[in-house]
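Quick one: Protein RarD from Pseudoxanthomonas taiwanensis, structure tokens please.
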Amino acid sequence: MSGTIDRRGLAVTAGTFVIWGVVPVYWHLLKAVPAMQIMAHRVVWSALLVVGWLLLRDGLGWLRRLVAQPRALPALALSAVLIAFNWGLYIWAVNAGHVVETSLGYFINPLVNVLLGVLVLHERLRRLQWIAVGCAAAGVAWLTWQGGSPPWIALGLAGSFGLYGLVRKLVAVDPVAGLGLESLYLFLPALAWVLWAEAGHGGGFAAGWSLGTDLLLVFGGVVTAVPLIGFAYGVRRIPLSVVGLMQYIAPTLQLLLGVWFFHEPFDAARALGFGAIWLGLAIYAGEGLWRSRQRPA
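--- reply ---
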């Protein structure tokens, strides 16, 4: 196997993580809109984009292939609920001033994936992987003690996205086609919420809000769908060990935005908790990279 890396795949994957890293600024521009309405618009417009793209690319072939896998239908319904919860919690947290804690959620997500592998898939961890998980657990325990309660936002984001990844791992479908069916599952409930809000329950699309706000809500579908499609494209073209290291681009940018752009507190006590988690991630990523280089080509 060649040691070269597909440059286009690398660039697309890096761009995907950069978009996910700076997207808090985008949702912050919609701060005047209730989080559930942002979420509903996000689902509606991204569903139209993703399903429209799939229909143009493949007609109804993508849907027929999914329907031919009966096991995939309930699994993707569950993954749709999980990703909707993750998106909704993330948007609410950003606009409620918890960007730093959202970054924590995506820092600990890889180690949550490891624990799910042990508990659900009965995978066995190597010694350094257990040490990495222990460091992350110590960091979360420290942040819980310092804050007086667990970092529920971070744990909710990491847990929901970890479970989402587990479900998608257990059902073998094309990533974009799977996203298309998830979008179909969520479309009608999201559209119903938008219409209910517009019927005198706080909605302002095309009437109460500014044109700029309306356009941002519509373009939120692009902000949602394009990185997911780009990730599905890039991850097939570069080694997973590289993807594993690049995934820390997004929470790193989120943390920097939380501290320097949104001016959220990040004192020494909080930095110590993050430091323990970063140490665990460094051990985990370093061990995985070393193992991948030891394997024969």
